[in-house]
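Notes from the 1:1 (GR / supervisor)

We went over the backlog. Supervisor wanted to see one worked example end to end before approving the batch request, so GR pasted a single chain during the call. The sequence is below; no edits were made to it. Supervisor asked that the structure be written out right there so they could see what the output format looks like.
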Amino acid sequence: MAFGVYIHIPYCVQRCHYCDFTTFEKSRIMPMEDYLQILLKELRKWSSQISEQQIDTIYFGGGTPSLLPAEHIVSILDTLATVGSFHISSQCEVTLEINPATVDESKLDLYRGHGVNRYSVGAQTFNPEQLKRCGRIHSAQDTRNTLRLLEKYDLNYSFDLLFGLPFQTLMDLESDLQEAQNYAMPHLSAYCLTVPQGHPMSTNRAEDDVQIQMFQIIEQRLKEMGLLKYEISNFAKPGNESRHNMLYWTDQSYWGIGISAHSYLRSTALSPYGSRFWNPKDFPSYLDHIENASLELVSAKNSYSEHLLEHESMTDFCHTQMRLSSGLSLIDFESKFPKKSANLLPILEKLASQELIEFENDSARLTKTGEGLSNLVFSELTFMTSS
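Structure output shown during the call:
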């Protein structure tokens, strides 16, 4: 089993208009050096309570982790390598989220020298007007320069593409994809804008059928670039899939560090089906949580935790694996939930009769129709009891 660590860095120069993550403009919260010390304290405090020993993936997310001095990233990695009983695998995937124009050659040199080997570029679009509507402060030229810099050093990276934006046309999307073809992208994540009703960006968007057409165009153009879909929103050249995100989709354990970060251990003393725990979303509560000297991480006394019942774990297992192009492994399901296939198979057979899923070898996966109606599929795969 693989194990990963997620570190949340909440700093931004300016919050994007559509963002619903725990992020703050850097001028409005504590200095970065102070936050670094809190992260290191959290690592030292609870690392001994994590039974996993080998770290296979590390992911710095945000926010904009590349706003931190590169030395801060190094301090976190060095601490991870020495706390508890951890050791970082020699093949560890270490991903750093960056925004265009927030890295230079000197930063990249320091990152590379301390194990960072993958970058996630939060570009979203090359269209200047769309960048303004999204509240992004970088320019299309900043994105081009950053991609060229990464490719100059032959660095592994992923590109974030946002579609379904206000006033965005099919021609606008095609222009973004045409520009993306100028680069040797190993990985691309394509997300449809998701905002609540009444949000300023919820109006003047293409109709649902046009958004579906947009995604079909994305899938076709990326296939032409050698990027194959391996998850509902993610595409990669073979061998360049996000190993860290695969943890989330294949029932692996991960530990989240930092404000609002979430964790999951697939089996604990409190539940053979796994425990989830998380950090508070506001700084006063987060600081109190870290300073609580007597609190155990996986504990019934930890109010920021839940310990899964069998049917809850079955639901999570099915929902996450069904996102993958490889589908839900029936063998893995039976291994974790012995004798529960009788609960699952009638549902899958019903979905197959509706042509929403298909069986292949020992897996069940979404069809093209099922991808467009995935919420319906996930609703059918929601188990309400363990009986």
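Supervisor's comment: The mean pLDDT is 93.
Batch request approved.
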